[in-house]
């Protein structure tokens, strides 16, 4: 079984760390959980890779903007991922799907740990999914997953690491 890992862009970390006025930004690592790895062929390598990279970007920018968890290492595991609309791979595999009108409940589950700059290790657990099809807003394939990433990032910045 393949293992994929995604990390914060190194260039951005080096540029931020080089400035003496800024604290060391958090390092964010994202890996895929076993259940999600089993779904990669169904969802598509490209889409899953893009979502892992998106999770890194959303969490990193939120924490940097809010000055939270400076110097921490955040290891996240993307354990589940559900699109609101068919992915490119799903459209290829099932030509009868309508990429415009096919809508479903989407979201994401994320777990992991935070190792603070002081060396304390804290658990992270968050999930968010639309509660019903009427709640699905927007036209993006990963609209609800992106909402989960943004809510997780705000929770981390506010010190709420385990929810639900």
Written overview of the protein:
- The protein has one domain (24-157).
- It is 38% helix and 23% strand.
- It starts with a strand and ends in a 7-residue tail after the last helix.
- By secondary structure, it is α+β, with helices and mostly antiparallel strands.
- A hairpin with a 5-residue loop joins strand 4 and strand 5 (121-129).
- The chain has 5 helices and 5 strands.
Question: What ranges have pLDDT less than 50 throughout 5 or more consecutive residues?
Answer: 10-20
How are the strands of the largest sheet arranged?
Answer: 1-2-3-4-5
Structure annotation, total helices: 5
Helix content estimate: 25-40%
Distance between the termini: 30 Å
Rg is 17 Å
Structural class: alpha+beta
By DSSP, the count of extended strands is 5
Number of domains: 1
In short:
The protein has helices at 10-18, 34-43, 45-66, 88-93, 143-157; strands spanning 5-7, 27-32, 73-82, 107-115, 121-129.
Tell me the layout of helices and strands:
Layout: E1 5-7, H1 10-18, E2 27-32, H2 34-43, H3 45-66, E3 73-82, H4 88-93, E4 107-115, E5 121-129, H5 143-157
Parallel strand pairs: 2-3
Antiparallel strand pairs: 1-2, 3-4, 4-5
Helix pairs in contact: 3-5
Question: What keyword list fits this structure?
Answer:
single chain; 164 residues; alpha+beta; 5 helices; 23% strand
């Amino acid at each position: 079984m393949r293992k994929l890992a995604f990390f914060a862009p190194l260039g951005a970390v080096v540029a931020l760390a080089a400035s003496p006025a800024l604290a060391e930004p958090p390092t964010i690592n994202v890996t895929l959980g076993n259940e999600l790895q089993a779904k990669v062929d169904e969802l598509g390598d490209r889409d899953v890779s893009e979502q892992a990279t998106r999770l890194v970007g959303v969490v990193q920018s939120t924490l940097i903007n809010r000055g939270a968890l400076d110097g921490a290492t955040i290891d996240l595991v993307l354990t589940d991922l559900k699109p609101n609309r068919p992915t490119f791979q799903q459209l290829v595999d099932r030509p009868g799907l309508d990429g415009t009108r096919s809508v479903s409940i989407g979201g994401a589950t994320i777990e992991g740990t935070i190792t603070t700059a002081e060396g304390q290790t804290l658990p992270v657990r968050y999930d968010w999914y639309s509660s019903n099809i009427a709640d699905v807003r927007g036209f993006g394939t990963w609209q609800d997953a992106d909402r989960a990433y943004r809510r997780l990032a705000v929770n981390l910045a506010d010190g709420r690491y385990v929810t639900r």
